[in-house]
Design a protein that fits this description.
Elements lengths: L1 H10 L3 H10 L11 H18 L4 H8 L4 H13 L9 H9 L4 H17 L2 H9 L5 H9 L10 H9 L7 H15 L3 H10 L6 H7 L7
Helix pairs in contact: 1-3, 3-5, 4-5, 5-7, 7-9, 8-9, 9-11, 11-12, 11-13
Length: about 220
């Protein structure tokens, strides 16, 4: 699979576009220069084949992930999202490589959706997220904070509260931004709970978290 996706991406690479794309990501990664829509078209057949086989090719994904081009990591994230209905709790340790290496918000915020979907089927993921919410790696903490995004009335408020409380007082932008997003998202479903949480944690929440979390609330 590695050679297949590499050939597809190389065929549509745009070196001129690669420069601004790398700059946007603070020049942390190399790029082929393929925009999102074109990338998804190029990778569609491989993901469709995987769905038909109902089997995740973990060794190939690891090889693809190790490629220096950022679009290759995007492919892995897209592939896993495409295969999410076949994913189980037992698969998650194999995914950890992808959330603990080549870390940045672009891949983290896609991969967290896989954990969220599996968590709806298996409560053991909740315990994993509680563990990650206190990890030294702030990207793992971000995954834990964003874990229940878009769940609406399926969200577990006590779990969200504990995970956020484990990160109060943080000076890490990507943690505080995630806290704000999690609160803002849940405020669409349960504004009273979010307002009460913000008001009772004023001293621990960052200004960024409060600003993001209260976007749809009427706070005095």
């Amino acid at each position: 699979m590695y050679q297949e996706i590499k050939a597809k991406f190389e065929a549509i690479a745009n070196p001129d576009q690669a420069i601004p794309m790398a700059k946007y990501m603070r020049n942390q990664f190399e790029f082929y220069g393929i925009k999102s829509q074109a990338r998804k078209v190029a990778e569609k057949d491989l993901i469709t084949q995987a769905k038909k086989a109902k089997q995740v090719e973990w060794e190939s994904l690891a090889q693809i992930w190790d490629d220096p081009h950022r679009e290759m990591q995007y492919f892995v994230a897209d592939y896993l999202m495409g295969m999410v209905r076949f994913m189980t709790y037992e698969n998650l340790p194999k995914m950890k490589k992808f959330v603990t290496t080549k870390q940045w918000w672009d891949t983290i915020d896609t991969l967290v959706k896989v954990y969220g979907k599996v968590g709806l089927k298996d409560k053991r993921v909740d315990a994993l997220m509680l563990t990650w919410s206190t990890d030294e790696d702030f990207w793992l903490r971000r995954v834990a904070i964003e874990y229940q995004l878009l769940r609406k009335d399926k969200l577990k408020p006590d779990l969200l509260a504990t995970i956020i409380e484990n990160n109060l007082g943080s000076d890490e932008f990507f943690v505080n931004k995630a806290i704000g997003w999690a609160l803002r998202d849940y405020s669409k479903t349960n504004p009273a709970w979010v307002q009460a949480f913000i008001e009772s944690h004023q001293t621990g929440l960052s200004k960024l978290s409060i600003r993001e979390g209260s976007k749809y609330l009427n706070l005095d």
